[in-house]
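A reminder from the course coordinator: this example appears on the midterm review sheet, so study it carefully.

Given structure:
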């Protein structure tokens, strides 16, 4: 039987360089909080229990962790005295846990699930401690993995404590490390803070473990996977890494991106093959696009499902709750929120459609809008199949337009329209023959006086 797995996510650092009221780990990459990336990877790798360690200064992180993971998933480290001290803070939350624990950082969102799995597996196979390392282009600031004469990991030395020769080592500590829970906490109780920073270093358990007969193994991962975020610039760098990966994955899956660098994805964007995405498109969370759809330039889309063969944009905005059926056409300067469009329905120019159900093949003319809000409550508009909503119709919800019904251009529709009826709700047109001639003559006469 495989061993039980748990994860401890460190998130008690101050994050001062972000200069933000929002705790660092709640800043988003690809539309998802960094902390949630780490939690998802740990859970994906089989961690049944996840404990988030946060500081007393960041109650929002605690609330977030409890919401995501349930009570008992939170440990407070107060004050933060180093990474070893942070992991110890999780000991009580893991009381009674018998199995392997992996330590992850809440501000390093890219450690892949596969790598975490590999580390758990290596630890289970070889015993001792497993450490995730990477070859750094510039190792400045990182802990270095120091090997003994046989190439086995002997200890980790922090940059500040490292000698000149040790600083030339490029194999660095990512911070991710895995050990048997009992061994981990035993070794942690031996860690001292006699070092350059005066902190309790988690990394010390490698040397301590070795003296106690627990050898360490190294898994070497990619530098980009170990990327940590400490500043807004690094947050942007992490976003760029995510976006590049998402673009590559989309194209790999058969999506055409005419200008990949100008398309922005969320962590959960799902796009089927043969979808074409034109330049300048932004996807917020919760978007799913079926085969053969086309997203034209400059669209902003979130919380939306787009059916097979649908056309959206250019310059359309789809907000949460948008559901477009197959072959729907949404054109320029159309905003849709919490609304469904049946197959082949269309709104091609300058519309706002909110809280509405649009029947199959119905056509909303240019400038047709739903008036869904009275300042207090929202109301629904229902439009039947094959209905034709004239240009510049205002649909004052709650209101229903029947199947195949028409509304006259410029109408303000406040009452339900029966199936097959034409509703006209606007002033009648009067033509006053010759009126302008007389008007001009009068004005001209006044000027000549
Ligand atoms: C740490 C590692 C270093 C590694 C580097 C990788 C130690 C001693 N050093 O250094 O070997 O190369 O990460 O990025 O572990 N944290 C707490 N409580 C604390 C201190 C830190 O929760 O008291 C959290 C931070 O929020 C952060 C993580 O632990 O998520 C790492 O802390 P940080 O101060 O960035 O460690 P480094 O000095 O970068
Ligand atoms: Mg750091």
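Designed residues:
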């Amino acid at each position: 039987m495989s061993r039980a797995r748990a994860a401890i996510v460190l998130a008690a650092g101050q994050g001062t360089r972000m200069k933000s009221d929002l705790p660092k780990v709640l800043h988003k990459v690809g539309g998802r909080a960094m902390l949630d990336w780490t939690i998802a990877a740990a859970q994906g790798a089989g961690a049944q229990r996840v404990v988030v360690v946060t500081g007393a200064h960041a109650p929002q992180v605690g609330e977030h962790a409890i919401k995501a993971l349930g009570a008992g998933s939170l440990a407070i480290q107060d004050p933060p005295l180093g990474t070893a001290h942070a992991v110890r803070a999780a000991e009580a939350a893991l009381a009674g846990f018998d199995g392997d624990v992996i330590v992850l950082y809440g501000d390093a969102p890219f450690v892949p699930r596969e790598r975490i799995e590999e580390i758990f597996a290596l630890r289970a196979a070889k015993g001792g401690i497993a450490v995730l390392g990477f070859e750094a282009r510039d190792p400045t600031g990182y802990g270095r993995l120091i090997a003994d004469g046989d190439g086995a990991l002997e200890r980790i030395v922090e940059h500040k404590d490292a000698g000149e020769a040790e600083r030339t080592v490029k194999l660095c500590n990512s911070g991710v490390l895995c050990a048997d829970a009992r061994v981990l906490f035993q070794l942690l109780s031996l860690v001292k803070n006699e070092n350059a920073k005066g902190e309790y270093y988690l990394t010390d358990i490698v040397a301590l473990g070795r003296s106690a007969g627990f050898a360490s193994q190294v898994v070497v991962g990619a530098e980009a996977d170990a990327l940590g975020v400490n500043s807004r610039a690094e947050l942007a760098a992490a976003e760029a890494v995510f976006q590049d990966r998402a673009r590559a994955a989309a194209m790999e899956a058969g999506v055409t991106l005419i200008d990949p660098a100008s398309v922005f994805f969320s962590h959960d964007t799902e796009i089927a093959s043969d979808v074409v995405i034109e330049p300048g498109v932004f996807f917020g969370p919760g978007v799913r696009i079926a085969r053969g759809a086309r997203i034209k330039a400059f669209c902003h889309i979130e919380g939306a499902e787009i059916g097979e063969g649908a056309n959206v944009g250019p310059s359309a905005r789809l907000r949460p709750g948008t559901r477009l059926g197959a072959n729907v056409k949404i054109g320029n300067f159309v905003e849709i929120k919490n609304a469904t469009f049946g197959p082949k329905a269309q709104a091609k120019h300058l519309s706002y459609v909110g809280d509405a159900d649009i029947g199959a093949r119905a056509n909303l003319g240019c400038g047709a809008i739903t008036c869904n809000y009275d300042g207090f409550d929202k109301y629904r508009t229902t439009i039947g199949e094959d209905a034709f909503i004239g240009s510049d119709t205002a649909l004052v919800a709650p209101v229903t337009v029947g199947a195949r019904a028409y509304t006259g251009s410029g109408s303000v529709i406040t009452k339900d329209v029966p199936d097959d009826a034409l509703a006209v709700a606007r002033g009648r047109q009067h033509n006053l023959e010759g009126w302008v001639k007389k008007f001009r003559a009068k004005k001209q006469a006044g000027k000549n006086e």
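The pocket of magnesium ion (ligand 2) is lined by residues 228 (CB under 6 Å). The mean pLDDT is 97.
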